[in-house]
Amino acid sequence: MDHKEGSTLATVFEKLKQPEPNWQQLLEDIISGFDCTTGTIHFLDQDTSLLQLQAHKGIPPFLIPKLSTIPIGKGMAGIAAERKEAVEMCNLQTDSSGVARPAAKETKVEGSIAAPMLLDGKLYGTLGIAKPVPYDFTEEERNDLLKIGEEMSRVLATR
């Protein structure tokens, strides 16, 4: 982990100790710390099993309705939730795997990753970040995102 990322983890973990975390500010800190431009946080609605948009940055306004509610198994966030593991793409624009939804290409991002927010194997949501250039996230970056997701889940579990 480079210095910027290390300080990002410390900042994020500190903010998660607050009684009511500012999820939008948290997302912006994470995006900045990973040198990204775009991101989303979705919380899992335990009653409907749908991912609900909690915070976002860099998403074109016309895409917000499509990202507001995501079924498990659909798109990068939904697949990360279903598999309970990080899902990433070096270049979302040229991806033909079918993992990214067609509308996702309209974000204009390329290197992207969606990580499940897990605590003791239980899903609480997803965290996604992306860069405007092709990029492969390192194993360390994936692990850091999963750690952040675990800490976010810990907060949600106490609600």
UniProtKB/TrEMBL annotation:
Q: Which ranges carry the GAF domain?
A: 24-155
Starting at the broadest rank, the lineage of the source organism is: Bacteria, Pseudomonadati, Bacteroidota, Flavobacteriia, Flavobacteriales
- Known InterPro entries for this protein? GAF (IPR003018), GAF-like_dom_sf (IPR029016)
Transmembrane regions = none
Q: What is this protein called?
A: GAF domain-containing protein
Gene3D superfamilies, sorted: 3.30.450.40
